[in-house]
Write a structure and sequence with these properties.
Rossmann fold, Arc Repressor Mutant, subunit A
Length: about 230
Amino acid sequence: MVDSRILLLEDDPNLGFVIRDHLEAHGFSVTLKTNGVEGLAETEKTAFDLLLVDVMMPKKDGFTFTKEFRGRDAETPIIFLTAKALKEDRVEGFKIGGDDYVTKPFSIDELLLRIKAVLRRTKGAPAGGAGEVFTIGNISFDSRRQLLNAGKTERNLTARENQLLALLAGRPNQLVERSEILTSVWGEDNIYNGRSLDVFISRLRKYLASDPAVEIKSVHGKGYRLVAG
């Protein structure tokens, strides 16, 4: 993980300095900005391996920043830092392209574990798909490039969308249990990650809707099955 570049967006200067100092002590290169406007400007100049984004920021909040950033970068992982613990806020964060969610107050050790887990997943091969190209009905899915081609539509997938679809596509018409998905893609099987999985499944279903013969079927209480034809 040494030399991984992190953009930290945090409007509390004291907390921002503490997080930056601890991450740099663990070998990360950290750029600290205090609002979403400065954050977007920085992403146009520098390529980062991961973004840590405070939700409540002046000038441009974390969710607005993420929506705009995802408009041109679907791959770089994003971890939200927030004092909000409501289910609705977590779901919204995942819907707009977040990869993880850390609720304040948090320990630096917890944050480090989350960062390393996300980087390990996104820098490694896609779970279950080892960089393969899949044909799903009339849809082409290149997990190496994180590209989904459905008819005339080409979509760049986020790292987690890519991992999830690669896991399902690598075992067509087979049941993939929720616990396996959560452990492989999220790193842990818990209630919060389970809610995130539901959001990502819903998102993938929309992406695959161009082919009526393709479906991600829910197997109640067990998991999911990707069916094509």
